[in-house]
């Protein structure tokens, strides 16, 4: 299966592109960990597959609307 065909089939079946799906799942995992653990943002970023805590922060702000630290203060 070619990468392009995979992307088409995945998007049809799941309802979002593979990259967006991975980003959403990583963000959801980070949200849970921010709520349920006292681990640092750096540790959570690494555990969730973000390359750096800065990448996680940018992704988090784009998807959730607040930084990971602000989210933790509000919901933990």
Automatic annotation (TrEMBL):
GO terms for molecular function: DNA-binding transcription factor activity; sequence-specific DNA binding. It comes from the Bacteria. InterPro entries: AraC_XylS_family_regulators, Homeodomain-like_sf, HTH_AraC. SUPFAM superfamilies: Homeodomain-like. Residues 1-74 form the HTH araC/xylS-type domain. Keywords: DNA-binding, Transcription, Transcription regulation. PANTHER family: HTH-TYPE TRANSCRIPTIONAL ACTIVATOR RHAS, HTH-TYPE TRANSCRIPTIONAL ACTIVATOR RHAS-RELATED. This is HTH araC/xylS-type domain-containing protein. It comes from Mycolicibacterium sarraceniae. The lineage of its organism: Bacteria, Bacillati, Actinomycetota, Actinomycetes, Mycobacteriales.
């Amino acid at each position: 299966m070619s990468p392009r065909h995979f992307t088409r089939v995945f998007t049809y079946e799941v309802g979002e592109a593979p990259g967006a799906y991975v980003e959403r799942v990583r963000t959801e995992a980070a949200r849970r960990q921010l709520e349920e653990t006292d681990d640092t943002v750096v540790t959570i970023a690494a555990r969730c597959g973000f390359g750096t805590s800065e990448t996680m922060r940018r992704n988090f702000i784009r998807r959730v609307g607040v930084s990971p630290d602000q989210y933790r203060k509000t919901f933990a």
